[in-house]
Write a structure and sequence with these properties.
about 325 residues, 6-stranded parallel sheet, mainly beta, elongated, 1 helix
């Protein structure tokens, strides 16, 4: 039991910022210069704020859980040589987060000693800004870029199995906002040039080996990109360049093993936004507001720029998102005003 003369605040907050930039350059005489840049960014977090099996008396009660993931990463590769320049970039970012604010099996206030307001809020925000750029010059200039970003996120706010006596407002709010702005670019100069960009953004879906689309004739066609092979090559490059203690004569430890992930299906990670007041008795002097809000904003930009006698290029973009919202009020007794 807890009796206080002021507010009761149960607050959990997480903020994560990752900013990285990679630059790879090469040049050759009458030869071929080639380079491949690979980066993997992973950011995972879980935020929880709970009141459970408790009896609380006081003024306002606030149960608040917040997560902010704000990551940007860039990769630039430039190669030039007389016979040819070949450049490529592969970037994979995996961003998973879960936020929960809950009042479970508890009593807040009493009939003759009510709390003022109750606020239960779970807020999840993910911002991802990846950028890849490849540049090549030579008699033959080839450039390619692959950018994959996966977001798995959810938010839950709940007052379940509890009794609430409030003289003011009761607000139960779950919000999940995902924003990603992906950019891929190639610049080529030579007698003949070619460029290919592949961008994949998923929300609560694992990345597939291959994607298809419906053609103008109404038939299902292969998008023409083998992402399974891309993941295999990326992970081999990461493992082959992992820092070993042998390189520094034992002065540093081996770098941890990191693999480019494919993200998770909604079935593996609850990818929904839910507000739940099931099994509770809520008596509010003013209003009762239960809200579940999901916002998904995904943008892909692909640029192929070439100055050459003959040029071929292409871009493939995939946006694959799933987002569910729901409000649950099962076996609930609510009195407002």
């Amino acid at each position: 039991d807890m009796t206080v003369g002021n507010n009761v605040d149960v607050l959990a907050n997480r903020e994560s910022y990752i900013h990285s930039i990679g630059i790879l350059g090469g040049a050759g005489g009458v030869s071929v210069s080639a380079g491949l840049g690979v980066d993997v960014v992973q950011d995972k977090g879980k935020v929880e704020a709970w009141i459970k099996n408790s009896n609380i008396k006081g003024k306002a009660v606030n149960v608040d859980a917040k997560n902010l993931t704000d990551d940007s990463y860039q990769m630039y590769v430039v190669n030039a040589a007389g016979l040819g320049g070949v450049s490529g970039t592969v970037s994979v970012g995996n961003f998973d987060s879960s936020v929960s604010a809950q009042v479970v099996d508890s009593t807040l206030g009493e009939e003759n000693e009510k709390i003022e307001d109750l606020t239960v809020s779970a807020e999840n925000q993910t911002k991802v800004t990846p950028k890849n750029w490849s540049g090549s010059a030579g008699a033959v200039a080839l450039a390619s870029g692959v950018q994959v970003a996966t977001i798995g996120s959810n938010a839950k706010a709940a007052v379940t199995g509890s009794t609430v006596h409030s003289s003011g407002n009761v607000d139960v709010t779950a919000k999940d906002e995902r924003k990603a702005d992906l950019m891929l670019g190639n610049t080529m100069y030579g007698g003949m040039s070619g460029g290919l960009n592949v961008g994949v953004l998923t929300v609560n879906h694992a990345v597939a080996d291959k994607y298809s689309y419906e053609s103008d004739e109404g038939e299902t066609a292969d998008a023409g990109v083998d992402l399974g092979a891309v993941y295999k090559s990326a992970n081999e490059a990461i493992e082959g360049n992992r820092m070993s203690s042998d390189y520094t004569f034992g002065w540093t430890s081996d770098a941890p093993k990191v693999e480019a992930g494919r993200g998770m299906d909604a079935g593996q990670q609850p990818g929904g936004v839910y507000a739940d007041v099931s099994g509770s008795s809520i008596n509010a002097g003013d209003g009762v507001k239960v809200t579940a809000d999901a916002v998904t904003n995904l943008t892909e930009t692909s640029v192929n720029a070439a100055l050459s006698g003959a040029n071929f290029g292409g871009s493939v973009g995939v946006l694959d998102a799933e987002s569910n919202t729901g409000i649950k009020a099962n076996g609930t007794n609510i009195t407002a005003g």
